[in-house]
Amino acid sequence: MTSAAVSEHSWLLPGTLTAPTARARRTLRDWFVDSLCFLAAFGWAVVAWDNSLSAEPAMAMNVGPSWLNEVDFLASLVLCGALWVRRRWPVGLALASLPLALFTVSGDVALLIILFTVSVHRPFPVAASMFGVHLLAIPIYLWLRHDPVMSLWLTVGWILLCLGAVLAWGMFVRARRQLVVSLRERAHRAEAEQQLRVTQARQLERTRIAREMHDVLAHRISLLSLHAGALEFRPDASPEEVARAAGVIRGSAHAALRDLREVIGVLRAETGVAEGAEPERPQPTLVDVPTLISESRAAGVRVSFVEEVADQVELPPRVGRSVYRIVQEGLTNARKHAPGVVVDVRLTGRQGDGLTVEIRNPWPVGVAGQGVGSPAARSGTDIPGAGTGLVGVAERVGLAGGRLEYGRDAGGHFRLAAWLPWPA
């Protein structure tokens, strides 16, 4: 079925209108089918007319006065011409041809084609009613056109068989067209849904990369702020200390710019990465946690690190990356809100039991509130934060199927603990 034909018959789907809202242009296939129908109806009309002129009435196809045969032939020509508009007004044409069905023999094929069109283009109740109305014309037709050879009951049976076959065939064609249109619509819907899923996966991937970069930049910028604050409040520092701090600031700034440039390149790409693919950068895992601890210690943060993780080689990369981000966020929060305290980092777990990450630091003295205070604020060196770090950690742990706990414990420490599943 061509696209134009599909648009023409799309109103046949269940639950839609009973008539097309816009008439589609007749296709080449429609012209071919209509021409065949016209030729078949006209050929039958010529054969019936020629038979009515037979010299032997017993061999004629119908019996009746001669003037009726002439009117019959003219009526058949009208019905043949009406076949060209049968697609637009099938019900109206079936009703208009009802008076001709009382006596016509030459137009029988044209009448059957009109009724077939009704059964194809209209629901079953409408088609059945049209066939029922034409059945009412059978008694008058048999009275005017009784067959001298075939018995009455055989004639009635033959007429009923022809009408029933046309109705069944038309309903079959209608059901098949509905099925084709439904399958085509389903295919288009599936394609649209697939494109939507790809778009959503791309957006989710970009959001995930942005969340990764929030953790990365927050960590590096906190290091920058810490070293810059040391230079600001230690003007009497030795040249070696100043050079070392400046080197750390320069390295952290270059690393932050590199990471930011790469993530902006990914976010600006017209075609995102495939669904389920890992981001290009960064991809730290559990083995990179010691390096992260070393960077914090070099920045002056006192960190106590304990690692009791068995079978690290078997740890899934996604879990390892989540562990890295959790530790990174914990150290960043400690530098922001509790500078100068000792931060305890502990990693424990094994395959099948899961992996536990625990970060603990003393609650700052003289600071109240629900979150971790910032005694450095009194000196003007506090590091501003967006307040979304722990929210991002909670989302990350939730997506991994783990558990997260954070807040002030009974011992007066701020505790950030997460458990991540590690399948056996």
TrEMBL record:
GO terms for molecular function: ATP binding; phosphorelay sensor kinase activity; protein dimerization activity. It catalyses: ATP + protein L-histidine = ADP + protein N-phospho-L-histidine. This is histidine kinase. The chain crosses the membrane at residues 31-47, 67-85, 92-118, 124-144, 151-172. Residues 205-270 form the Signal transduction histidine kinase subgroup 3 dimerisation and phosphoacceptor domain. GO terms for cellular component: membrane. Gene3D superfamilies: 1.20.5.1930, Histidine kinase-like ATPase, C-terminal domain (3.30.565.10). Keywords: ATP-binding, Kinase, Membrane, Nucleotide-binding, Phosphoprotein, Transferase, Transmembrane, Transmembrane helix, Two-component regulatory system. The keyword Transport does not apply. It is an enzyme of class 2 (transferase). It comes from the Bacteria. InterPro entries: HATPase_C_sf, Sensor_HK_TwoCompSys, Sig_transdc_His_kin_sub3_dim/P. Its EC number is 2.7.13.3. The keyword Transmembrane applies.
